[in-house]
Amino acid sequence: MPPRAQRLVAWAERRLPSLTxxxxxxxxxxxxxxxxxxxxxxxFGIGFSVLLAVMLVGALNYANNxxxxxxxxxxxxxxxxxxxxxxxxxxxxIGGVRAGTARAGETIHVSLxxxxxxxxxxxxxxxxxxxxxxxxxxxxxxxxxxxxxxTEFRGWLALPRMRVHSRWPLGLFRVWSWLHxxxxxxxxxxxxxxxxxxFEPRGDTDRxxxxxxxxxxxxxxxxxxxxRRQIAWKLSARHHGLLVKDLEQPAPQEDWRLDxxxxxxxxxxxxxxxxxxxxxxxRESGRRWSLRLxxxxxxxxxxxxxxxxxxxxxxxxx
Length: 318
Description:
Residues 190-222 are annotated as: Disordered. The chain has 318 residues and is α+β, with helices and mostly antiparallel strands. 31% of the residues lie in helices and 30% in strands. It has three domains: 12-187, no CATH class; 212-249, no CATH class; 256-315, no CATH class.
């Protein structure tokens, strides 16, 4: 940004914070009211005003009462549309922000709740970056606007400034207000592409081998030497060959003990990327895992809650 433009922005931030919305982010909920809603005529509205002025001059010049009445009616409709446009935004409430999960470098899905206590709000527009979203807010209800934001780094991602505006009903006036919610979204670290697996204890050499069980795990084709008592005769009658009840069940997998200090020769970001990959692999394979960090420890567990706790701790590492 050129120095002159920077000085202009700094002046606007000091003198016109409500107009420019360059001031610091504000907490939710955000309610739009008359002191933060602005309205100007559109290009079509300026052209329409010029047309009304020409019609007014012509009607007065030729003393044409019908033309004068038409001009006054069109002017009254234009002024009324300005009030209607203002009422589209007046009283809107931005109540909540929700975000999905994403890793650094991916796009994160964000949902914004917009509600109205009275009246249905038509043709409300929301500008997020270079994209525009058009929606309707029902009377006494709320609607959800969904959009995606690009991410580059792990950690908290601040929401950008957003502009809510409308040209309803006739397109003669543009009414707008700036939004800057103070609700950052969390971005998980990017896992490394390839690397070694974590160290597993070798105390049990039979770990991972199939073991005989009491309940059938699956059905398979008959192999010479299988005991006759394991043949599923009823199911084999409806099959082209013999089926055997497989009573072998895989042994439970070893729990992974993920330790920050157990990785040597790596910088902090490389350690975070490797731990993120290990956590993803453990979750996909159904393993249980624990995570030890310099400032915290997560005991052996599994599931979505445990996964999100561990990934959040990695994302917020300094």
